[in-house]
C-alpha cells in the first residue's frame, strides 16, 4: 500500500554507508553510497547474504553465486574468468579480496588481487561453518569452534600486522572481523577479541550477536539491548563521534561502520547514531513515493 513502511532485513554497514534489504528483497542504501553504486556483474534474481566493506558490497544471488559492487567490484571481473562460479553459503569482502564458504564441501575459497597476481587466492585448508573478512585478513570458524585467520593477499596493502592472526585458544560459536581486529562469541556467551583496535576491548557481558567495525564493535545482549565499545565511547579521542554510545532502545540487529552504527528495532524501525558527515544518519523514507 502507498505510504506503508516496508520491513527490513540483512542490515550491514561498510565504512560510511549502510544497506538493508526491504521486504521485496530490494537493496536500499544511504550515506556515502557513491562507493558502492552499480554492478559490474548483475546478480541473478533476489539477493541475500550481504557483507560490506568501506569500498565494496558483496552478497549472494538467487543461485547462491557471489556478486560484488563498488570501487572493488573488479572482484566480479576476476570471478568472470573462472571456469566455475561455486555455489556458496556465505560470502565476505575485504580490501583487495573476497572469500566464500562453498556449499558442496564446506571449504573456503578466496579470489581477488594479491601480491603475486590476480585470481584465486590462498585460503585456509579444512572444512568450516563460517568465514568472515577484515581489511587485510580473513578468519574461518571450524566445526569444533576454533578460529583460523590468514592473509589472502600476502600483505598486498603493505599494512603492518596488528595481531590479527594471534587467535586465542578459545571455542566460539560465531566470529566477525573488523578492520584490524576480530571478535567472537565464545561458548560461554562472552565476547573475546584479538588484534590492535580500540574495538577489541570487549566488556564482560554475554552477547547473542557481535558486529565488528573499523574502530568499534557492537553486540546484541540479552533483552535486546545493544552494547558498543571502541573509539566512539565519548572520550573525545580520534574517531569519536559517539558511535559506541547506542540509544536506549530494543534492537534485533545492529551494524557498525567507520564512525557510525545502525540498528533495527523490535518495531522494524531503522535507527542510526554517530558520524553524519556523509548522511549516514539520514535514513531515507523510501516508501514515501
Biggest sheet: strands side by side, in what order? 7-8-9-10
Mean pLDDT: 91
**Helix content estimate:** under 10%
Oligomer: single chain
Into which percentage range does the β-strand content fall? 35-45%
How many distinct beta strands? Answer: 22
How large, in whole angstroms, is the Cα Rg? 18 Å
- Label the overall shape: globular
DSSP helical segment count: 1
Which structural class matches the secondary elements?
Answer: mainly beta
**Unreliable sequence segments:** none
Distance from first to last alpha carbon? 11 Å
Largest sheet: 4 strands, antiparallel
SSE succession: EEEEEEHEEEEEEEEEEEEEEEE
Q: Your description of this structure?
A:
The structure is a single chain. The chain has 289 residues and is an all-beta fold. It is built from one helix and 22 strands. The protein has one helix spanning 74-80, and strands spanning 8-14, 17-22, 27-31, 48-53, 56-60, 66-70, 88-93, 97-102, 108-114, 117-121, 130-133, 138-141, 147-150, 172-177, 181-186, 191-195, 207-212, 216-221, 226-230, 251-256, 260-265, 270-274. The strands form seven sheets. Strands 7-8-9-10 form a four-stranded antiparallel beta sheet, with helices on one face.
